[in-house]
């Protein structure tokens, strides 16, 4: 047993020395500190889910190649998949460029199959590059390691319905690389938010998340990078700098419909927002705005309009996507409960309830069952461009829009509302935005000009950065831990 262990250590040490020699003397691209950190997390700490957010040209592809090739050489019969948004894209990045077949020491490589985009090793391991559009071809696979590259363009169904179940059998690891997405609606953001929650609550100690700027790559021309930063900021494209070069989640750009939306300026805690309204409740106008839907989403917005100050307060929302809970009875009970919470014992007719007349069934059922009449939006008499413009003016007028932190999905829709290549408004993810438009028309809000503009420019969400990452010789730990598995990690809970 001792002799077998010694032979294994010698074999692993030989592999690592060969890998280092090829990286330093052939590729002449040793790992930088960010790449070292990810390799440590996988090989030494046994992390099961590692997500990293990168600025452009920071070295994410190189990092994935190193981890994949070393894992394949250290472990016999190891199955590794590198998944890009499309197979053609993956073939160009890894195969046609020869980056994958040329990366590991050739003495450990059996052959490379360009047709299958598969690199085979002498020990029975292989690395295969594929795209996440190939749903059915990945069902039932049992990989040991999966790497998502360009995750900002991956789709939700592939991960949740296909690859996530595949990872359970062998307690496999998932390593994710990507540049932050432009659209708030990308599945990337949903995954990112869930992972942040898990890490914060310390429910899953085998999860990790990092952000790496473009400047972390030592081969980048720092002077040119600084010029790029200066040009983008001076041309009011600061959000592009943060997203593409700082590796920060920053929604916006020239295609964003609501460029003046700024959570720092417009969002308040619910308790603080309600304190603004306590003294003058009876003087304000209270609205319940409904956008009924049974097949996609039933959205409701609860808001207050102050006609004396021309302020809009958006207090709460319903955003129901479960079809089993979108019938009139269940929705109306939730509406009544929220109205009572927001304005206890409100006088009769305090709430003005508006609905989208395209869903006439909702009005009929409410009237028949609850003897309550709803007001139609009369949306066909308005123009979408004008409606959007009024919301923009509201956002730009400092202090006029105040949104409760309860309104997660309204914020989500505002940040995801981006025009397409033809400049058209999106026809999805707009249920609460429609409610917002109906609110603006129903309240007859008008702009009050201010003497001095004090609007703060859009700020960017900045997640905690990696600090104190030291480069050191960690090959011994890789050898010791390369075959280690944490049997106590319950990976399946991540997908429940």
Q: Helix and strand layout, with pairings?
A:
Blueprint: H1 2-27, H2 33-43, E1 49-54, H3 60-74, E2 79-84, H4 87-96, H5 99-102, E3 109-113, E4 118-121, E5 126-131, H6 135-138, E6 145-148, H7 156-166, E7 173-178, H8 187-200, E8 207-212, H9 222-234, H10 238-244, H11 263-266, E9 267-268, H12 270-277, E10 285-291, E11 298-306, E12 311-320, H13 328-342, E13 351-355, H14 360-370, E14 375-376, H15 384-396, E15 401-404, H16 408-416, H17 431-443, H18 475-481
Parallel strand pairs: 1-7, 1-8, 2-5, 2-6, 6-7, 9-15, 10-13, 12-15, 13-14
Antiparallel strand pairs: 3-4, 4-5, 10-11, 11-12
Helix pairs in contact: 1-18, 2-3, 9-10, 15-17
Summarize this entry quickly.
By secondary structure, the protein is an alpha/beta fold. Helices cover 39% and strands 17% of the residues. The chain folds into two domains: 2-221 and 464-495, P-loop containing nucleotide triphosphate hydrolases (Rossmann fold), CATH 3.40.50; 263-443, Nucleotidyltransferase, domain 5, CATH 3.30.420.
How would you characterize this protein structure?
By secondary structure, the chain is an alpha/beta fold. The chain folds into two domains: 252 residues, P-loop containing nucleotide triphosphate hydrolases (Rossmann fold), CATH 3.40.50; 181 residues, Nucleotidyltransferase, domain 5, CATH 3.30.420. The protein contains 18 helices and 15 strands. The strands form two sheets. Strands 3-4-5-2-6-7-1-8 form an eight-stranded mixed β-sheet, sandwiched between helices. Strands 9-15-12-11-10-13-14 form a seven-stranded mixed β-sheet, sandwiched between helices. The protein is elongated. The C terminus is likely disordered.
């Amino acid at each position: 047993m001792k002799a077998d262990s010694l032979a294994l250590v010698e074999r692993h040490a030989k592999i690592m020395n060969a890998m280092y020699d090829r990286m330093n003397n052939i590729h002449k691209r040793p790992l930088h500190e960010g790449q070292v950190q990810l390799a440590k997390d996988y090989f030494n700490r046994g992390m099961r889910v590692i997500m990293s957010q990168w600025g452009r040209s920071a070295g994410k592809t190189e990092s994935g190649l190193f981890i994949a090739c070393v894992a394949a050489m250290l472990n016999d019969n190891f199955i590794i998949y590198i998944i890009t948004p499309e197979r053609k894209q993956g073939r160009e990045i890894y195969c046609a460029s020869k980056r994958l077949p040329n990366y590991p020491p050739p003495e450990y490589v059996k052959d490379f199959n360009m047709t299958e985009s598969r690199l085979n090793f002498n020990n029975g391991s292989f690395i295969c590059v594929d795209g996440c559009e190939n749903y059915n071809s990945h069902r039932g696979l049992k990989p040991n390691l999966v790497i998502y590259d360009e995750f900002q363009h991956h789709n939700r169904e592939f991960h949740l319905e296909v690859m996530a179940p595949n990872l359970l059998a062998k307690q496999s690891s998932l390593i994710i690389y990507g540049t932050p997405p432009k659209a708030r609606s990308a599945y990337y953001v949903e995954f990112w938010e869930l992972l942040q929650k898990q890490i914060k609550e310390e429910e899953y100690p085998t999860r990790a998340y990092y952000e790496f700027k473009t400047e972390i790559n030592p081969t980048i021309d720092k002077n040119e990078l600084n010029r790029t930063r200066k040009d983008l900021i001076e041309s009011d494209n600061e959000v592009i700098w943060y997203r593409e070069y700082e590796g920060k989640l920053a929604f916006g750009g020239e295609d964003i419909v609501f460029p003046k939306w700024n959570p720092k300026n417009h969002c308040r805690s619910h308790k603080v927002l309600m304190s603004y309204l306590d003294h003058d409740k009876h003087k304000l106008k209270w609205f319940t705005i409904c956008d009924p839907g049974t097949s996609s989403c039933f959205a409701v917005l609860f808001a207050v309009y102050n006609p004396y100050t021309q302020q809009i307060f958006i207090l709460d929302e319903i955003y129901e996507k479960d079809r089993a809970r979108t019938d009139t009875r269940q929705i109306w009970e939730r509406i009544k409960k929220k109205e009572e919470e927001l304005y206890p014992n409100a006088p009769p007719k305090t709430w003005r309830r508006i609905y989208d007349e395209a869903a006439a069934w909702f009005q009929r059922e409410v009237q028949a069952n609850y003897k309550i009449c709803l007001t139609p939006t009369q949306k066909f008499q308005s123009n979408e461009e004008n409606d959007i413009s009024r919301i923009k003016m509201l956002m730009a007028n400092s202090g006029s829009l105040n949104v409760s932190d309860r309104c997660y999905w309204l914020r989500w829709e505002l940040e995801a509302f981006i025009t397409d290549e033809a400049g058209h408004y999106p026809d999805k993810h707009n249920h609460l935005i429609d409610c917002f438009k109906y609110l603006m028309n129903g309240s007859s809000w008008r702009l009050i000009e201010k003497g001095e503009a004090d609007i703060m420019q859009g700020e960017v969400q900045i997640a905690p950065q990696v600090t104190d990452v030291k480069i050191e010789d960690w090959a011994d730990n890789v050898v010791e831990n390369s075959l280690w598995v944490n049997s106590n990690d319950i990976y399946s809970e991540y997908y429940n």
